[in-house]
């Protein structure tokens, strides 16, 4: 799948659920619950034990768009690509990782915060910029300000996104939002309450469906 096709799927969903879990089994259950809740995109962070194998296993099912998160360098990015990751998300701006993604034909969303970082990411081939931690700098209003200065660059805010403000981020100009613990509750996951995670996915999907295109 080419980067623009991956982007189109993300724009359609308007959300990237971020899975952090204490074990491979819990991460797989979280992904299954997200899918059951109607969201067909998931990001597995490299902080999850066995993250590479989880990505490989999820790609075998072909039910979801599967990305790798917390990709800190090009070497890890290559392992994720070999496992079948369809997009990469980094915690910060790392040009060698951007260069790898460009060579591999993978969509990458580097972690950025300032206009300078966003421009550097864009000039080095990023299709979209992850804005993190967006909630600390004003949330949707910060996205609106960034988009007024850089209207042609896609932005995906992460950090501080919740059910009450997710749609506001889309209205402010984001193409999608990244959501972690507000969707994949660590308490629900540890307690085996997959229904709660699936329900949270449905709630986010409904909220974002009502956001302006």
What does this structure look like?
- The chain has 213 residues and is of the alpha/beta class.
- Helices cover 47% and strands 16% of the residues.
- It has ten helices and nine strands.
- The strands form two sheets. The protein has a six-stranded parallel beta sheet with strand order 5-4-3-2-1-9, sandwiched between helices. The chain has a three-stranded parallel beta sheet with strand order 6-7-8, with helices on one face.
- The longest helix has 16 residues, at 194-209.
- The model has no long low-confidence stretch (mean pLDDT 95).
Oligomeric description of these chains: single chain
Strand order of the largest sheet: 5-4-3-2-1-9
Uncertain regions spanning at least 5 consecutive residues: none
Strand content: 15-25%
Number of helices: 10
Tell me how many strands there are. Answer: 9
Structural class by SSE content: alpha/beta
Radius of gyration from the alpha-carbon trace, in angstroms: 16 Å
What string gives the helices and strands in order?
Answer: HEHEHEHEHEEHEHEHEHH
């Amino acid at each position: 799948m080419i980067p623009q096709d991956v982007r189109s799927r993300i724009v359609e969903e308007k959300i990237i659920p971020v899975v952090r879990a204490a074990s491979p089994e819990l991460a797989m259950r979280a992904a299954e619950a997200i899918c059951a809740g109607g969201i067909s995109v998931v990001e597995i962070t490299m902080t999850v034990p066995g993250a590479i194998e989880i990505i490989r296993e999820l790609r075998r099912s072909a039910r979801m768009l599967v990305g790798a998160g917390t990709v800190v360098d090009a070497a890890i990015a290559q392992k994720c690509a070999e496992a079948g990751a369809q997009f990469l998300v980094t915690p910060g701006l790392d040009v060698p990782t951007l260069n790898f993604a460009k060579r591999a034909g993978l969509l990458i969303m580097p972690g950025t915060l300032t206009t300078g970082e966003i421009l550097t990411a864009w000039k080095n081939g990023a299709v979209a910029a992850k804005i993190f931690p967006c909630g600390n700098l004003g949330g949707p209003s910060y996205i609106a300000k960034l988009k007024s200065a850089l209207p042609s660059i896609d932005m995906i805010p992460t950090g501080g996104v919740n059910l009450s403000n997710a749609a506001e981020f889309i209205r402010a100009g984001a193409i999608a939002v990244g959501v972690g613990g507000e969707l994949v509750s660590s308490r629900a996951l540890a307690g085996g309450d997959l229904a709660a995670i699936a329900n949270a996915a449905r709630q986010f999907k409904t909220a974002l469906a009502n956001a302006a295109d």
